[in-house]
Design goal:
It is a single chain. It contains 8 helices and 8 strands, in the order αβαβααβαβαββαβαβ. With 213 residues, the protein is an alpha/beta fold. The chain has a single domain, classed as Alpha-Beta Barrel (TIM Barrel), CATH 3.20.20. Strands 1, 2, 3, 6, 7 and 8 form a 6-stranded parallel β-sheet that branches. The protein has a two-stranded parallel ribbon with strand order 4-5.
């Protein structure tokens, strides 16, 4: 269907064991994550959907967007969701040298440090999921918890239909899953169709939606 994996194969997880791909739990808990915000209208819409289902999530925010839309970012915080670093300018780790990449992450970290974050650890997700081993090593030394995923909704992909996004998530969800959505303009059309269905369906199946800490 696509050039990327919807459901991350076990062999990829084993290649990079220091990265967090899912959460080990015996409970019916799953972890919704939202990348690329905060974004006007879209992020607040997501927050309303989550609140309706008493769901917590994790937002991997871009530094420049936090600076541009601080009120929306504060709305995320006020709802008790966790926050992660997604670089300051949505940098692709494969295209940047390690120093430049780390500097961009640190720039976002400086912005985040001006707020009181609810999570106990420094969470980071590489944009596009692309990160070099040298960058991983540096971030681990700085006590970052690097969060990947094991289910990709593909809400950003123009080749993926709204119905396929729903199927991508529901077909692959199991206990401890980390699921990726995007509170971005590009993904908004599919997100607004998919997220309410996911929240409603998985809630009825007894799943709880937790924030990463």
């Amino acid at each position: 269907m696509n050039s990327f994996f919807i459901n991350i194969p076990t062999w990829i997880e084993k290649m990079f064991p220091s990265l967090v791909w899912s959460i080990q739990t015996g409970k019916k808990e799953i972890y919704l994550t939202f990348d690329d915000g905060p974004t006007p209208e879209i992020t607040d819409w997501v927050l309303k959907q989550l609140k309706t289902h008493k769901a917590k999530a994790t937002f991997f925010c871009i530094g420049k967007n936090i600076n541009n839309f601080p009120k929306i970012f504060k709305n995320i915080l006020s709802e008790g969701h966790s926050i992660g670093n997604h670089t300051n300018n949505h940098f692709n780790g494969w295209k940047e040298n390690t120093k430049t990449y780390l500097d961009n992450i640190h720039k976002n970290e400086s912005i985040l440090n001006t707020y009181k974050l609810p999570n106990k650890t420094k969470l980071f997700r590489p944009p596009y999921g692309k990160i070099k081993p040298s960058q991983i090593q540096k971030l681990k030394k700085e006590n970052y918890k690097i969060i990947m995923w094991n289910i990709l909704s593909a809400d950003f992909d123009i080749k993926t239909t709204r119905e396929m996004c729903v199927e991508n998530v529901l077909k692959n969800t199991k206990k401890g899953a980390i699921i990726v959505f995007h509170d971005s303009i590009k993904a908004s059309e599919k997100l607004k169709h998919t997220l309410p269905i996911i929240l409603e369906t998985l809630s009825k199946k007894g799943y709880q939606f937790k924030a990463l800490i």
